[in-house]
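Entry for the shared binder. Reason: the reviewer on the internal report wants the predicted structure included alongside the sequence.
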Amino acid sequence: MNWFTELFTQGSVAQTVLLLCLMSIIGLILGHMKIFGKIQLGGSMVFFISIVFGHFAHKMGVEVNQSMMDIAKNFGLILFVYTLGLQVGPGFASSLRKGGLKLVLSCLATIAIGTGLTILVAVFTDTGGAQAVGLLSGAVTNTPGLIAAQQTVLDINPSASATALSVGSAYAVAYPMSVMGVIFTVIMMMLMFPDSAKKSLGRADDKHTAVTEVSVSNAAMAGKTVREAVKASGKNFVISRLWRNGVVQIPVSDTVIKEGDHLLIICPKEDMHSFDAIFGHEEYDKDWNRPDIDWDSIDKTLISSYLYVTQDDIVGKSIESLKLRNRYGVNITRIRRAGISLVPGAATHLQFGDRLTVVGEKDRIKQLGKVIGNEEVKLSEPHLIPLLLGIFLGVLLGSIPVLVPGVNTPIKLGIAGGPIIVGILMGIYGPKLNIITYTSPAANQLIRQFGITFFFACLGYGVGGNFVETVFCLQGLKWAAMALAIAVVPIFIMGIFNEKVLKMDFAQNMGLLTGVMTNPNALAYANEQLGNENAAEAYATVYPITTFVRIFIAQILTLALMG
């Protein structure tokens, strides 16, 4: 059995792979268990299990193939941040527009307060500058920021590997403080503002689209075509069905609107009560499936169906240029993209993998399906060239040094910042350039989880060698207290400010606070308490901004505080 012992004790490639898999399996199993019946650490539990492995391996004198560990750690992070950028990219621009300046400014203010606290910790305590940045990264559960800080430490002094490891130790102490602290803050907000929280309880309006009915009585709109009405309104909406003289029909772009028409409109949820001013009268307080207008009678001749965009020739083209309504008499009422429901407009460009909700005659829908592809099997086909191209460009971008006035060492986006920016840009502009960046949600999730799991395993194992001596002492307790303050104080202050001054919706407020802390555990808890997922939209809006900004801050703070 010597071969078995040697397999796990000698620093070979096989030993490293076996060790990473073993730590990941144990961590993932334990990560799915709930603490206090509420909190799940998920994949981050791999980090803490790997610390335990690293500690005992160090005590036993077990060596690993460090080059293999470094490759697995860095490539795992690249896979994670790039596919994360791909996922949020398609809906990022629209989410940012919907979130508006209010969400962005509140997000940046929260980051600024946390950064200020970190500077105070570094200046007025015996905590080193690099370790303070590690506390900040752990307090906001921002792994890319941790890597940016460690990379900057080594850029300043390539022999400072011990300092880089201590940054990881500080991160490890701060991480659980953040998980508990942010959830505690959510609880406090609910106790402090019960009326606001009550308004958000159980509301099922987490969708991006809404349905409303209007009766046309505005003479200015009568006589206009559907295309002219949409353009004149300045809003993005779809007239799904039109009821006139007891007959329900599907309007096309050239359909003329007349006084007395009843329109069934699909629009962004924030615009649903603005159409009374546009068309003359909105049927508030009435169910759009009302008995005197049988909107469903349309189903006798027409059907509603899903079609998937899988035809390369269609990708990147606008709905207006395709003239689908006029050519096929089919109405696109919704687009599902990257988990987000969008209201299609004339200028909306179709992307590979878009799921279109269409209404029309069965034969016409079948014809349209042939035009746009509708081959679901293609959605499962891997597109490796765009994936590898994006990773290549991301690493290249992250390696470009940027000179900052007054700073001797150039700043780089690094392997955490470059790939996520390219991922977002690929997700937004790739289809317009005929680059198929689509990955199925399952494939994207698999790649992300695989990358971050191996990253956590390598990071934890490296930190584990001196973790006990560093953390379980008076200094470790101080780190825990400071990390809790960095995690809780900024979101507590901004949570109150958002409620009292900005009058922000409570669910949106909670989504913002958990998103700026990149804390999915706290988001899940807020969703559970509110009985819906309304907070997720604000979370998704600020998450990419937060990740991007914190990468820069981690580098700048490390340079400034170590200097």
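Summary line for the report: Strands lie at 209-216, 238-244, 247-249, 262-268, 280-282, 303-308, 331-337, 340-342, 355-360.
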